[in-house]
Fold:
Amino acid sequence: MPTSKTLKDLRGPQRRIQRMAPFFFEGYIHVVVYRIMIPLTLLYALFIIAYLAFGGLGTGLKIFTAVIWVLWTPQLFEVAKGLALAWSRGMAFGHMNEEFAQMYRKRYHKRSGVYVAFPYVVLALWAVGLIVLIVRWQP
Structure:
């Protein structure tokens, strides 16, 4: 007779996202912003439709776009960081044993400096884009 084994996650149910904050703060920020962005993006779409249909909402659309832009920043940073981690085969942002990392560098001639800098370069370009959006967009 098979017995069913019940596994219990001691951190609590998945719907309680604050359980993630003490041990993975970046993941917590990612999930919080994601949950905020879902309804906000739907409202943004309705705002764009209203702007196209009635006009006169240009300044409001500019402000709303800047808010959406800022809220997307952690998502973009995590994607860039994940790409750097994948491209460097775990050397950038990975938690490797120093001896293993040294052998890995010797075998594959990989340096993680460029890969570690990549997400911050993307973040800087993203910030410049926001500044250009705010300054140059005339609603």
Notes: The radius of gyration is 21 Å. Residues 3 and 13 are 23 Å apart (CA to CA). The first helix runs from residue 25 to 54. The chain has a mean pLDDT of 83.
